[in-house]
Description:
Elements: H1 2-28, H2 40-47, H3 52-55, H4 60-68, H5 73-89, H6 93-106, H7 111-125, H8 132-152, H9 157-173, H10 177-185, H11 188-196, H12 215-231, H13 242-262, H14 268-285, E1 289-290, E2 296-297, H15 302-320, H16 323-333, H17 337-344, H18 352-365, H19 369-374, H20 378-407, H21 410-420, H22 423-440, H23 444-464, H24 472-488, H25 500-508, H26 513-533, H27 541-552, H28 559-565, H29 568-579, H30 597-602, H31 653-659
Antiparallel strand pairs: 1-2
Helix pairs in contact: 4-6, 5-6, 7-8, 7-9, 8-9, 9-10, 9-12, 9-13, 12-13, 13-14, 14-21, 15-20, 22-23, 26-27
Amino acid sequence: MNLSHGLINKLVYLAILILMLIPLFLLGQPSGGGDSSGGQLTQMRDDFEISEADLGEINPASETMKLSTLGLRGPAATLLWHKAHTQEVNHEWDRLRATLNNISLLQPHFEKVWEFQAHNISYNISAQFDDYRQRYAWVIGGTEYLSKGVRQNRKSPALVWHTGWYYGQKLGMSDEKEQFRRLFRDDKPLHERIREEGIDVDSNETLGPDRKPDNWLVGRQWLNRGYRMTREGGIPLRRKTPLHFYETGPKWVFNYAIAIEREGELSDAAQRAWQNAGNAWTEYSEQTIPTTAEFTIRLGELDELLRKISDQEAEFAELTGDVRERMRTEAIENLSARDKKLLSIPADERNPQQAAEVDRIERMVSPQPLDVAKNMPREKKLEAIELADEITFSRRRLQKVEGYRQQVNFDYWATRAAAEQTTEMLEARRLVYEAEQLNDQARLDEAIAKYEQAWVKWAAVFDEYPLLMFDTTSDDLLDILKRYQAAIDSETFDSGFPLKEFWDMRESGAMDPQHYQQLVKEQREKDAEQRAQGGLLNLDFREMMLEAQQSNAADDADKGEAGEAGEADAEKAEGEKEETGDEPAGDQPADEQPATAEEDAEMKDESPEGEAEPEAEPEGESEPEGEAEPEGEAEGEAETEGEPETEPAAESDAAEDEANAPEEEPEA
Length: 668
C-alpha cells in the first residue's frame, strides 16, 4: 500500500509539472515570425522595444556565449576582465584583442564595456608603442571597437557621441596630431569601413581643403547622427548633460578651422571654415536645451529675455507706483551707519571691496517684486502678484541662460567666429605663419620684417575684437612674441610696438574674472542697443578695462596723476617735463613722448577675454570642451588685474597710423 501511495504522489507531481509548463509556454514562447507574435514576455519586449533585435544587431555568437555559461555570465565576465588586465600588463596584445571580443559577446548591451575598453585601446595601449603609425593603428582600433558597440546598441546616443569624440579629439589633439591627421586623410580602407557605418565621407561637409575626409568633420558627422537620434528619433539622452552633448558638434567645426590654419591653409577655405563654424554656433544657440529646472532654454534668447524683463518691470513699476521706493527707503533707514556710509560713496570712487559690499547691501535693501505686490492695496494686489510671478519666472530663466552660456564660453566663441572671418585676421595669421617658417630657416631679417607686418594686423584685430586678447589664441601669440624677441635679441618692447599693451597685460596678468564678467555684460548690453537702434555703435572696451584696472589698484595709485593722464593739458605738461629731462610719473621712461589723441582713442577699444574648455572644451572641448567648457572646455579663466599705464606714443606719425589701422568689418 505504501508503494501505491508513493506512486500516486509521483504521478501528482508529474501532473503539476506538466500543468506549469503551459503558463510558462504562454509567457515565454518566442516569436515565430509572420502572424505569430510569441508569448506574453516576447510581446512586452516588443512593446517596450527592449528585445535583442530592437537593441541592436543580433549576434549568434553572443547568444551562444550567454547560453553556454548556464547562468554564470556574471562570474565569467569578471574572470575575462581580470584576464584582459593581466594580458595588458604582460603586453600580450593579440590575446588581449581576443579577450576583449569575448567580453563584448558576454556583455553586448553594457555600454560601459564599450566606452572603457575603447578608451583603454585608443589612449592607454596605443601609448605603449614608439612608432606613430602603430599608435595610429591602435587609436583607430579603439574607435572601431566603439563603432561595433554602436551597432550592438542602436539606442545609445552616448556611444555615438563617444565615437565622434574619438575621431575628433584623439586624432586631432594628440601630440602626434599632425601625423595622425595625415594618416587619416589617406586611410582609404578606413574610409570604406566608415561608409559602411552610414557616414558619408564624400560629402562637402566631411571633406577638407584637399578634398579628403578630415577627422574633425568625420567626427562631427558621428555627433550629428547622435543628435538625430535624440531630437528626431525620440531616444532619451542618458549619462550626458544636454548642454555639452549638443555643444561638441559645433566645437568640432571650430577645431577643424583652427587645425587647417595651423597647417598653413590660410586662404578662402579658412574663411569658409570659420563661417561654417559661426553658422553652427548660431544653430546651437537656437536649439532648446533641457535644464535642471522645470523649463528648457535657448542660449540665444538672452537679448529677448532682457527686453521682456525690462517691459515687465516697467509695467510693474507703473502698477505699483512708489510702493517699492518707500519699502527701499525704509530698509535703508534700518541699515547700520557703516552700510549707510558705503552707499554714500560715489560709484566711481569705490574700490573693488567697497563695490562688492555695496552690491550686497543693494540686494538686501531692494524689495523683491512679490514683497512689493503683497504691500499693494487690496484692489490691485492680485494683478500685482500675478505680474510679480511673471517677473520672477523670467529672472529665473535669465539666470539659467546666463549660467549655461558661461559654461560653454558662448560669448567668446561667437566673437572668435566673427573675428576669424575677417580679412584682417586671415592676413595676420598668414604673416605670422610665414614669419615662423622663415625663422625656422634662420632667415632672420626676412622673418623680422614679416613679424613686424603681422603685429600691426594683430593690433587692429585686438582693437576690433578685444575679447580675443585673453584666450588660447593669444597664448599662442604670446609664445610667438617671445620667439620674435629672440630674433631681435631683445627682452623688452619699446613704446611704439603695436602690441605693447597686449604684452604688458598678458605678462602682468592684469585682469580678474569678476571684472571680465562685468565687461562681457556691458558688451552684451551695448550690442543689444546697437541691434535695437540698427546703427553702428562704438564700443569703448579699452576704456572699460582701464576703469576696472584703476579701481582694482585704487589703494596704491596716485588718483591725481591718473585723472590728469586723461586730460590733454596734463599730457602736454608731461611732455614738456620729458623734454626738460624730468622723471615722468609711474614707470614711463623720461625720453618717451606722451600718449597722443589717437592712442587714447585706441585705448578705449579693448577688454580681456578668458576661455573655458569642455572637457574641455573649450575642449573641449572639452572640446569642448573643455569641454571647460564648463569643462576644461569650460570655459572663463581667472586673470588678476593691475594698474593701467599711459601708453607712450609711437616714434613717428606713420608708425602711429599703421598701429591704429581700423579693423575691417566681419564678413557675413
